[in-house]
Amino acid sequence: MDLSSLNIVVLLASLMVAATPILMAAIGELVVEKAGVLNLGVEGMMITGAVSGFAIAVSTGNPLIGMVAAVIAGAALALIFAILTQGLMANQVASGLSLTLFGLGLSALVGQGFVGVVPPRTPKLDFGPLSDIPVLGQIFFRHDMLVYVSLLMVLAVWYFLTRTRAGRILRAVGENHHSAHALGYRVKRVRVLAILFGGGCAGLGGAYLSLVRVPQWTEGMTAGAGWIALAIVVFASWRPGRALLGAYLFGGIMVLQLNLQAAGFSIPVEYLSMSPYLVTILVLVIMSSNRARITLAAPGSLGQSFHAAG
Amino acid sequence: MLRLDKRPTPSKFWNYATPVTAVLLTMIAGGILFALLGKNPFEAIKLIFWDPLFSEQFASYSRPQLLVKAGPLILIAVGLSIGFRAGIWNIGAEGQYIIGALCAAGVALAFYPVESWLVFPLMILGGAFGGWLWAMIPAVLKTRFNTNEILVSLLLVYVAEKLLAAAATGFMRNPDGAGFPGSRNLSQYPAAANNEIFVNTGLHWGGVAAFIAVLFTYILLQRHLLGFHVQLAGQAPRAARFAGVAPARLVVLCLGLSGAFAGLAGMFEVAGPARQITIDFNAGYGFTAIIVAFLGRLHPVGIVLAGLLLALTYIGGELAQFMLNLPAAAIQVFQGMLLFFLLALDVLSNYRVRLARQPAKTDAKVELA
Question: What do the Gene Ontology cellular component annotations say (chain A) (predicted)?
Answer without folding.
Answer: plasma membrane
